[in-house]
Amino acid sequence: MHDTLFMEQWVFPFYLKILHGNYATQVIVGDELEKFHSDVHRALDAITPTITARLIRGQWREAITGSWFAGLKKYTEFQHQIGERLLASSACYAGQSHALAMASFADDTSVEYLTRYLDTYLRRPDCIYDQNWVMASLLWIDHDNSTNHSEPFLAPGGLWDQFTADKVTPDDNQAWTIDSNRKRFWRTMEYCRKHFMAL
Fold first, then answer.
1. How far apart are CA 9 and CA 164, in angstroms?
2. Alpha carbon of 140 to those of 8, 50, 73, 155, 166: distances in Å?
3. How far apart are CA 181 and CA 97, in angstroms?
4. Mean pLDDT score across all residues of the chain
5. Domain spans in the chain, listed from the N-terminal domain onward
6. InterPro entries of this UniProt entry (predicted)?
7. Interatomic CA distance for residues 130 and 86, integer angstroms
8. Are 129 and 156 in contact (CB under 8 A)?
9. What's the Cα-to-Cα distance from 110 to each of 42, 87, 136, 139, rounded to whole Å?
10. What is the pLDDT of residues 107-144, one digit of tens each?
11. Which of 150, 159, 92, 164 shows the shortest CA–CA distance to 120?
């Protein structure tokens, strides 16, 4: 019963809306978005490091939620735990929130995990995981910190070009272009900064 109550309080109201940054993309609007804001504000007031740790080490739904809240709260004590889950890539889409948390921390440790991930998974064009979110996260950190950690990956003919060569088409698939990924990630991060991190 306790596990069910935990999921109902800390996971079910959030994870589907967090997924793909749905809260920032007009997928959720009106009363549903208002309720999400209220739920997030209440959660930010009540969440603790103990709850966050339990979420991050849980299954993919819990992990998505836990990393997202860790990023909003700047709980850097979980950075290595989040980074190891990112590198493991053991569940679809969970890397999105891990990447967002790393962008929120925006420090050398974040860069280390993001670059390790990209150096590993951009070499695997058969594995479509969260490379686009991680690349955008590294770009965000470069923008915030006036650094250039993303440049080696984006060099012409480099790992990003190699990975996306069979994924970007001029007619109907722009999901893997740098511009589209940057815009989506910027929109998500700016939304969080405006509505949740400023509290």
1. 39
2. 32, 28, 18, 17, 25
3. 15
4. 94
5. 1-196
6. DUF6000 (IPR046042)
7. 9
8. no
9. 27, 12, 13, 12
10. 999 999 999 999 999 999 999 999 999 999 999 999 99
11. 159
- Amino acid residing at 177: T
Both tokens of 93, joined, read 């889409």
Q: Are 103 and 141 in contact, with CB atoms under 8 Å apart?
A: yes
CA separation (Å) from 77 to 112, 119, 177, 192?
Answer: 16, 24, 33, 20
Does the pTM surpass 0.90? The reply is yes
CA distance 33 to 27: 9
How far apart, in whole angstroms, are the C-alpha atoms of residue 82 and residue 55? 11
User: Tens digit of pLDDT for each residue in 136-159?
Assistant: 999 999 999 999 999 999 999 999
